[in-house]
Sequence to fold (414 residues):
Amino acid sequence: MDIAKQAKKGWNKKWLLLPALVAVLGLGWGLQGPSAKRRVARADVDIATVQKGDFQVLVQGFGTLASARQRVVTAQVKGVVEQIAVRPGAQVKADTLLLTLSDPELEQQYQDAKLALEKEESALAALKLEQGVDLSRQRQEVLRLKGEMELAALEFKAKDDLAKKGVVSKLEQAKAKLHHEQLQRQWRFEKQRLEELADLLKQRRQIQANQVERLNRQLALVSDRKAALKVRAGLDGVLQSLPVEVGQSLQLGERLAQVGAQDEMLAKVDIPQGQAGALALGDAVDIDIRGTKVKGSVSRIEPLVKGGTIRVEVALDDKLPADARPQMHIQASIHTATLHHSLYVSRPTNAYEGQRGRLYRLGKDGKAQLVPVRFGAGSDEQIQILDGLKAGDRIIASDSSRWLQQQLDWLLIQ
Fold:
């Protein structure tokens, strides 16, 4: 009986030691470290440091160079492409021949107008010659009568003196006086007739001259249309496009070519519509042209959104590299503002301007604590910190969404 009692007592002591054993195992597990889901390898995250200073608010965009002065060449007449003189990419002057068109009907109109003008010009010349003869004949008649009138005046004076002395009769005196007066009236009539004839002939010449002028303008119009068969660049620069082929029939107003000046270019930059609200005319712009930096300023902001972007035109202040060409791709950084004495950090994933968020702040012991943060203005690469962090704080800038979804308020960065 005594032996049995001792055995039961020993078994109870083992059960009393079990909680202590569990506690020891739990302590050992706790000393071993946090669960695997809280442990993060340092190489798997991006760490950024909060800085304080002048924060440049930048808006990034991509675009192309374009000619500041462009000319679209259109067909001024109907015709068929007979010859193509140059191809896109060629350097051209304003008078460089691009295309030669043909139009037999227009050529016939030109010949008809030319012949009609020559005919009327000949008629005007003949009229002037004829009128010259008529005027000369009338002038001679006036001069003849004037001479006879002056001679009759002398005869009348002589007979008048003789009649006073009784040498000639009163009848002879009266006849001499009447003859002189008749010649005087006839001279005045012919003189007036000469003036009226000159005026009449002048009017006839003017009518014929007007006809010649009308045909001259008509020929000039047809000549201009004929000259338009020779299509020229009209601008010094580069031929950018020529969407026609030999033998193609063209209609009036159809687009033939586009020429852009190469000595004066601008940049056309597409900006995401969400960032375009901060833009203003005159904002400074840094343009990257294949590694060459060029400065400029915003000169125009298009009012319409296309494909989720807004186009901005940038006037270029610096000289472009020698290999710069229209349609060359560029990258632009637009300076919309400078925030002095501001906290900012490399933009974390899912950090948005003017909103609140949560970031993991890294301590010296490697523990990253989740803290609330309020964001301010931002650019593509950086964002302003309004509250929640201070200068020198380090944060996890890479995507933290998987830990936030697990509601992990701290991590251990190893």
About this structure: Residues 361 and 395 are 4 Å apart (CA to CA). The first helix runs from residue 2 to 32.
